[in-house]
Amino acid sequence: MSRVPLPGRLYQPVPGFENHLMAELKKNAAELLRIGPLIHDPGRDATVDTAKPDVFWYQNCWLEPFRLEFYSINEAAGFLRGIQRNWAACPHACFRRGSLIASKLPPISTKPRPFPWLPGESPVGAWTLLDERTMIASARCSSPFPNGAIEFAQDREGPPSRAYLKLWEALVRLRRWPGPGERCLDVGASPGGWTWALARLGANVLAVDQAPLEDRIAALPGVECLRRDAFTLKPEDAGPVDWLFCDVACYPPRLYDWIEKWLASGLCRNFVCTVKMQGSVGTKTGTVDFETPKRFAEIPGSTLVHLYHNKHELTWTRCGE
Known about the structure:
alpha/beta, VC0802-like, Rossmann fold, 2 domains, seven-stranded mixed beta sheet, five-stranded mixed beta sheet, 16 strands
């Protein structure tokens, strides 16, 4: 049995947005390789990821990949167990052999989670088989969820849309959420999915949108509605808030300019914003704005990720002290 470290990073693309990831990586990569279901950038290191992040269209990133040549199922499983407890399989080839290896590893629950919920502190590694005797694995990954995927126990009656799922996911990744009495600004609130989720936590919500909320959401305790264009709302108009939430469909530069005003005002400590994208790579439907997301990611204390429940969008978060 032999283990060989792989330089760089391995990326699990977001299904349907592989071209976005390839376009981001090709800007700085001298060479990109396909390893099973993954895209390998051998020239990328941790300093690039943290100092000036520029890659976001992935479901999970394998941060310390290695190649393992092994002889038996027991040997492969034992090697992984010797590193840590939690490992998630990323099936690609030799599915029967892969399932036998997985059966000898401690199980990881993939049942739908209730909200609120905190993931464990222990890292979740990932592995895949290239052939019967070759494994690619990484003990450390970017996502706290197995293969970057998280399912929630859905409420099919309370919320007016499924948008609350990405809000739940963002807050779980932050490991914090609004509590009773905290003041939240929810812009782009209609029909009220995020407002419903925040009110359910006991927060006070100022819901802003040109379109109305559903009547039953607007009537929830602690909810105040304001019918206007969110981007005409100045920080001093809203006053101090504990959290700013934004799910407005707009061009990313417009959102960035508005958020800059809030950051400069000092009137909000915590932010969760959806950065809506337009266009496609390699088509005539318009170019994709890869530059504005970088500006969001470079704001101190920020994270910018593609959530499992995101579609053609990214989610920017920032939490104060």
